[in-house]
Amino acid sequence: MFIKIKKNCGIFMEHNGMEKNHIIPVTSNFLINLNHAAEISFYTIKETKTKFDLENHEINVPPHTRVIHMQMTYRHSSTKERIGDTKGSIVERNYYKFYFMPEEMGQYEQLRGHIENHVLNL
After folding, report:
1. Residue 60 belongs to what domain range?
2. Would you tell me how many other CB atoms lie within 10 Å of the CB of residue 70?
3. Residue 38: closest CA among 101, 94, 111, 97
4. What is the C-alpha to C-alpha distance for residues 88 and 20, in angstroms, rounded to an integer?
5. Looking at the domain assignment, is residue 12 inside a domain?
């Protein structure tokens, strides 16, 4: 199943291809294949957090911002660094975080509802 993230609807995104503490607004439509997601978590930010855009301008993420965090499978990962002289290395799975500002709860509820429809609760 694919989910479509729509452009210009007040959603901000972070992924591990970006510098730490940077987020960007979603400015083009794109699809994510949920079959490639290993873990998905939902949480709400409790206090104001300061993030930065790609030009290092401050973006304040207010309390009650909802986040959907998708950790992708190991097939969608990269080798980050070698560990000493051994053959081991650190494998970093790709992730996406979507920030839904408090005024954008309709988009969040719609996306979470579609994901929840494919979850078996025991």
Report:
1. 2-72+100-116
2. 20
3. 94
4. 25
5. yes
| Total number of domains in the chain | 1
95 belongs to a structural domain? no
Q: Position of tokens 């079959």?
A: 35
pTM given for the model: 0.83
Name 112's Cβ contacts closer than 8 Å, sequence gap at least 6: 42, 68
Between the CA of residue 3 and those of 7, 20, 30, 36, 69, what are the distances in Å?
Answer: 13, 25, 8, 12, 14
Q: Give the number of other CB atoms < 10 A from CB of residue 26.
A: 17
Each residue of 80-99: pLDDT tens digit?
666 566 666 666 778 899 99
